[in-house]
Amino acid sequence: METTKKLFALLCLFVTMNQAISVSDPDHMETFCMKSSRNTKSNTTYNKNLKTLLSTLSNQSSFANYYNLTTGLASETVHGMFLCTGDVNRTTCNACVKDATIEIAKNCTNHREAIIYNVDCIVRYSDKFFLTTLETNPSYWWSSHDLIPKSFGKFGQRLSDKMGEVIVRSSLLSTSFTPYYLMDTTRFDNLYDLESIVQCTPDLDPRNCTTCLKLALQELTECCGNQVWAFIYTPNCMVSFDTYNSSLPPLPPPSRSGSFSHRGNNKLFGGMVLAVAVSVFPFLSLV
């Protein structure tokens, strides 16, 4: 996702938070704590293994933008991973993962499976082995309220074609320094630039990465294909698009606002998301 758009997203959420309640992490978008009959109690071996795993993920984020780990044995095994967005440096990645591991431990106490979406990273853990497995739920999307101008012409078709091309190209990057991450900027009619960004977790094979991105794009275009920008996070991939006129300043005006929604069960209104939901409920669009 373009850095300027991320800064704007954080600005909107920070303003909203100040109108509602304070939270520990302004980068936090959404946390999902999965309900399960396997959920545990405090001070179990599983919880101790989870604490170790989250600490290791936090430390490893200083050295890589992706890392996965398995800790424990048999029924006390914990699998975990983090993924930082391809446009952030090590310092930002480490800060995001550190905050995410703190938030997920606090908000999902005694849950054996959880995932957190922050602006710059995803952190996930489970007692089930999920690496290499394609999953599309839970998802989280956010979009602008501003509609695509009529002067942009057949924007929907251009978006579909360009994102489809970017998805195919990204599937060839499984062994790159930042696997499956690709950003493309294309100018149309000397009128506007379309920025397209995709990324998958490196544990997926190219075929599953492509499938994940196509499904995410389908959901994003169905909800937000007529907006000037939008992005979606799923457990295995991220898709983002943005439009801007190069003659305009890169940051949109502060008055511009956005809508967000989620898909999947076991949603936890943790931290910032609760504040946003309280303050912008009239604008909230649920899918």
From TrEMBL:
Pfam families: Stress-antifung (PF01657). It comes from Arabidopsis thaliana. It comes from the Eukaryota. Residues 1-22 form the signal peptide. Residues 28-130, 135-246 form the Gnk2-homologous domain. Keywords: Repeat, Signal. Gene3D superfamilies: Gnk2 domain, C-X8-C-X2-C motif. Belongs to the cysteine-rich repeat secretory protein family. This is Gnk2-homologous domain-containing protein.
